[in-house]
Amino acid sequence: MALWGGRFKEKASLQFKKFNDSLPVDYRMAVQDIVGSIAWAQAIHEVGVIDGDELVRLTAALQELKASVEENPQQILLSDAEDIHSWVEIQLIEKTGDLGKKLHTGRSRNDQVATDLKLWCKEKGGDLLFALVNLQQAMMNLAEREKDTVLPGYTHLQRAQPITFGHWCLAYVEMFNRDIGRLKDALYRLDVSPLGSGALAGTAYPIDRNALASRLGFRTATMNSLDAVSDRDHVIELLASASISMMHLSRFAEDLIFYNSGEAGFVEMSDLVSSGSSLMPQKKNPDACELIRGKSGRVFGALTGMLTTMKALALAYNKDMQEDKEGLFDALDTWQECMEMAVLVADGLKVNRSRTLAAAQQGYANATELADYLVGKDIPFREAHHIVGEVVLAAIDKGVPLEDLTISQLQAFSDRIEQDVYQHLSIESTLNKREALGGTSRSQVEKALATTQSGNEAILNEQVVGAPGKQRIQRALKQVKQRLNAQRAAAMSVRRARMSDVDSIYQLTNFWADKGEILPRSRDNIIHDIQNFVVAELDGKVVGSASLYIYQTGLAEIRSVVLQDDAQQQGQGKALIQYLLEFAYQMELEQIIVLTYIPQYFQQLGFNLIDKSSLADNIIEDSEPSPHKDPADEVAMEYILSQPQQA
């Protein structure tokens, strides 16, 4: 059944109907279409199109339909409806009779499909954000596990300089962090509601579109009806975000395919993500990584297809735009599936540390260190570069590494070379010298390599690089984890508070203050301090809040961490604190304290107990004891933020 038959004398051909109908694709937006319809029913009730009783009946029928669809979405495909909008309206008419025909008053399928698609993108975007954060976490876990493992670094697929496997992992952590930023930016821009734009010129009814947008969970309404119904920038942005991230995943996969090869032998894939050969029983193939690499092409294709579809479309809506969903749905599903598979790959990866170390020691990877050594002897770098090239050529002719050349053999190329040159040619020296921000310094020397060095040489290397490598690596990992926790918090709908949140925060804080769990906050106090509050949302409703109180340069306190009863045990409390820790880090604070009766909760988040009496008097005075608690039970805890080390 179509919704537009009155103008036509004949039915469309079956061939055209099959070509034209989009239900097999857009049925995935059924819940979004129903949610949009419920909001629209309220909107047309507010302008007098339907009365209160009709609103109740329509809403009840739509809620019933929504529950049915959530239980069995495949039922939709049994219909011959043209699209999901037609299907929902047909079902509504069956439930409510002629009343169902009123719902489309003032609305067009043009603004309806634009709204449905944005609602779907918002929901899918949340799933993708979680998948990205989980992928980052998997790479962080692998970096922690292999932070000391020596790995040859490559340029032009030629061995260049040694790095650590953990450093390789953290390179992808950075890539995925940029992917998170792009996705969040895209989700922010698409978070505007087209509903009420009509076919192209806007609805003829005095709908409060901003209120309608808020009801649907959008931050605002679109400003131009013509643009609103013809805009697919959000589809293109999501496809672009997916494409860039899939490029990163493909590089990740390619690295591991090479590392897994018999020629390299650096890693072994888990059986969970590998397959065998139907002919050769000895084979163990890295199929998961090969498929990730291969699937990147179909995601790129979806982006190219959408750009091509949109490039010459006159305003406003054209049926060409029906092609937006199939490629988008497939690309985002593929992206999410590949991220989840990459987590399995990372979790099960076994690194052959002796093989990676042996490879890092080959290929004259320490040639740059010899050049730097000569620079330290007041030889210009270009001249040093030429000298080392000649040394490498001589070593190749002899078939030995640089460090096996005798001092007399080395001095034949430069009389500036002395006995101390050998300490600069070791793997640990090569790694530890890369101690600048973003470098590959590691926590400790590989045990097998460390046994070949004398105790004095090891001490000397530690003195040359300053602080022990282990401390530097731990600082770097902690810094990335702080950011990772903040990303996870944002994914759980934690955000900076706004003035519109004041009443919700006031109700939450005083509910728990009345129970004696926290100190009360006046509404004026919350308004004055709103810029330091963060809130957690569930289904668009504020269910938790927390604040940061700054005492002085470098020091702040986390206060008023509260959650609704029905939002407990869902991770929002931790997310609020982690968000505030990242907020504090960005403000260049150094020490965050809490005064709490539940130290075990904050210990899980990285806080450590401190002597309460060590706190300044003004901090203790600000934190008056609860009349419902024993003051002796309150403890002080601190979290030291990991700030970048100054050069």
Beta-strand proportion: 5-15%
Distance between the termini: 71 Å
Q: Indicate the mean pLDDT.
A: 85
Secondary structure tally, helices: 26
Integer count of domains: 4
Q: What ranges have pLDDT less than 50 throughout 5 or more consecutive residues?
A: 442-469
Task: Based on the coordinates given, report the CATH architecture of the largest domain.
Answer: Up-down Bundle
Major sheet details: 7 strands, mixed
Shape: globular
DSSP summary, beta strand count: 13
What is the CATH topology descriptor of the largest domain?
Fumarase C, Chain A, domain 2
Q: Write down the Rg.
A: 31 Å
- Give the strand line-up of the largest sheet: 7-8-9-10-11-13-12
Helix content: 40-55%
Catalytic activity: L-glutamate + acetyl-CoA = N-acetyl-L-glutamate + CoA + H(+); 2-(N(omega)-L-arginino)succinate = fumarate + L-arginine
GO molecular function, one term: argininosuccinate lyase activity
Pfam families: Acetyltransf_1 (PF00583), ASL_C2 (PF14698), Lyase_1 (PF00206)
Pathway: Amino-acid biosynthesis; L-arginine biosynthesis; L-arginine from L-ornithine and carbamoyl phosphate: step 3/3; Amino-acid biosynthesis; L-arginine biosynthesis; N(2)-acetyl-L-ornithine from L-glutamate: step 1/4
